[in-house]
Amino acid sequence: MTRIAAIIVCAVGLVLAVGQIEVGAKTGNAFLVAQQAPEKKTTPSTSVAQAQGKASTPTYADISQIIDKYHCTVCHGAVEPRAGLSLDSHKGMLKGGKDGPIIKAGEPDKSELIKRIKGTSEPRMPITGPPWLSDDEIETVERWIAAGAPESKK
Fold it and tell me: What helix, strand, coil percent values describe the chain, rounded to 5?
């Protein structure tokens, strides 16, 4: 009896982890149904806004939101920035650190910033990660650098 109880407990745990039990109305048979995330509904105006957001050139203000989200200025802030790199201003980002510039305007693939946030150059940033930047956030930084790393919209 103990063995059967253990099997039932394991089966219930598996069901809770994988999905939920639904009982067929006509047959009374139980079966597993995977839980699905609700569909994200988009309206034409939402889709247009998303497309326009992707098409517009990011500015330092957009990049600073990512910097703030990942607390980059804890190490790379105004007061004694680590490696001489201050990310709390557009000027500081363009200047770079003790090893030189981290941004090669117009060339994201040659920019040390992109290499660090993608993990192709060590140490990967943010140093406290994971979490790392999302693919969308990396793409935003890449578009910003590709556009010449503008401070603001012209």
Answer: 45, 10, 45
Token pair for 89: 């201003």
Q: Which two tokens stand for residue 32?
A: 């597993």
Note whether 119 and 112 are within 8 A (CB): no
Q: Residue 47 in 3-state DSSP?
A: helix
Nearest to 133 by CA among 82, 71, 89: 71
Per residue in 41-96, pLDDT tens?
433 333 333 444 456 899 999 999 999 999 999 999 988 999 999 999 999 999 99
Domain boundaries, the chain: 2-34, 55-146
Cα→Cα distances 11→3, 5, 20, 21, Å: 12, 10, 12, 11
Alpha-carbon distances of 151 from 51, 64, 81, rounded to whole Å: 22, 10, 21
Q: For residue range 95-119, what is the model confidence (pLDDT) as tens digits?
A: 999 999 999 999 999 999 999 999 9
Picking from 112, 111, 115, 108, the residue whose alpha carbon sits closest to that of residue 144 is 108
